[in-house]
Structure to design on (422 residues):
């Protein structure tokens, strides 16, 4: 990425709570794909983002072929009604090709995927066929041209763009690339994301706790989420609540990272030193979002790196990462589009409490009843420190800023926490 200079970006940080969608829009508007790309084998391309258009060198499929096991025929040989008896002229298996043209009045036994013989234009599925001795087959009428036939190039035509630059490669995209014969693809470089937690009270799992100390859940959770996303992660561990140390750390990592993420220290407490440290060595664009959980979220720049300062409470940190940081990182990875999460309408199975003023994401469990209707229920306590509320949830219940308490049976929108894993 070619960032603007700090002087060009310099602005007074916004002191009011910004609406969630405006924050998301501003983050995406300021970020761009990182510079650099690399050529990788198709087998290792999962999760990467294309830096090139992938063109098809061949038709997919490369020839007209049978969509079902059955009999390849000339559709004109079969009547509109009733049935007809055709003479068998051999068989064609997948991977074989019959060069001889199919004579009128004949049919060929054919397997799924096998090329249609010259002259044939339809396939009658085997369930509708009746063998008559060893040399004839009786087939029903009413068969039109193209029935049970996959046409050459009907999926992708030779020369067409099979996948465009900016596409994240899921298993199905990897399959499409394989179908056009590409063994390698050019993908964007993985952004280097530096992460560290703040807080003198934090100890890593496995260490002994002294009075007043707690185990750090944010660090393993966020590092795992970043690795799952597919960025390159440098974990600096915990940086203490010392302004000089924070400034020196931010100044150093801002010289080589593409993005810097921290947790804690972005609110207004006496020990919240991250925002002042960023203001001293970088640029703060905004730091408060009209959302619950996750109101204190700082975004700006330090050196060449985009900066995301997440709240210290674990649920707030997780929701902020999911809603605002991940879309930004996906843009830096080269993904195109608006990167908006899927929202599904559902009925509430119980009342939900909410105060108007801020958008809210409550943790929920989405289920479909015997009547096929999607209903959602809360996971229980919605405290920003109750990380198990995310463990039990399979979705976030989105409640608009101006919405108050929600009664049972009302429609809300939910955002699944997991997608379809093909």
């Amino acid at each position: 990425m070619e960032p603007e200079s700090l002087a060009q970006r310099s602005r007074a940080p916004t002191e009011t709570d910004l609406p969630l969608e405006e924050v998301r829009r501003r983050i995406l508007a300021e970020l761009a794909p990182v510079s650099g790309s690399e050529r990788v084998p198709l087998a290792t391309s999962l999760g990467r983002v294309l830096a090139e258009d992938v063109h098809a060198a061949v038709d997919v499929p490369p020839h007209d072929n049978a969509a079902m096991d059955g009999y390849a025929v000339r559709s004109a040989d079969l009547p509109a009604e009733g049935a007809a008896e055709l003479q068998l002229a051999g068989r064609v298996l997948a991977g074989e090709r019959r060069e001889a043209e199919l004579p009128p009045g004949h049919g060929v036994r054919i397997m799924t995927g096998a090329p249609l013989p010259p002259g044939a234009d339809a396939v009658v599925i085997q369930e509708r066929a009746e063998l008559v001795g060893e040399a004839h087959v009786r087939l029903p009428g009413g068969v039109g041209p193209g029935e049970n036939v996959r046409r050459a190039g009907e999926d992708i035509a030779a020369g067409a763009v099979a996948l465009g630059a900016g596409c994240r490669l899921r298993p199905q995209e990897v399959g499409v690339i394989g179908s056009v014969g590409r063994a390698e693809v050019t993908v964007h470089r993985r952004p280097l994301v530096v992460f560290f937690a703040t807080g003198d009270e934090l100890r890593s799992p496995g260490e002994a706790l002294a009075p007043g100390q707690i185990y750090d859940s944010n660090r393993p959770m966020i590092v795992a989420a970043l690795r799952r996303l597919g960025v390159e992660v440098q974990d600096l561990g915990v940086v203490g609540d010392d302004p000089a140390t924070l400034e020196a750390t931010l100044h150093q990592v801002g010289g080589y990272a593409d993005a810097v993420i921290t947790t804690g220290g972005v609110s207004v407490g006496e020990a919240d030193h991250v925002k002042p440290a960023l203001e001293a060595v970088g640029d703060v664009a905004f730091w408060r979002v009209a959302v619950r959980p996750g109101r204190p979220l700082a975004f700006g720049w330090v050196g060449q790196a985009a900066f995301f300062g997440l709240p210290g409470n674990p649920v707030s940190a997780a929701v902020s990462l999911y809603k605002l940081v991940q879309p930004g990182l996906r843009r830096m990875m080269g993904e195109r589009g608006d990167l908006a999460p899927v929202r599904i309408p559902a009925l509430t199975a119980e009342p939900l409490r909410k105060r108007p003023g801020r958008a809210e994401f409550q943790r929920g469990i989405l289920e479909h009843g015997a009547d096929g209707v999607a209903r959602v229920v809360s996971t229980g306590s919605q405290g920003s420190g109750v990380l198990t509320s995310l463990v039990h949830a399979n979705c976030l219940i989105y409640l608009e800023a101006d919405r108050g308490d929600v009664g049972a049976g009302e429609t809300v929108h939910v955002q699944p926490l997991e997608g379809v894993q093909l």
Helices lie at 6-9, 20-30, 171-179, 218-229, 243-253, 274-281, 314-332, 388-392. The first helix runs from residue 6 to 9. The chain has eight helices and 26 strands.
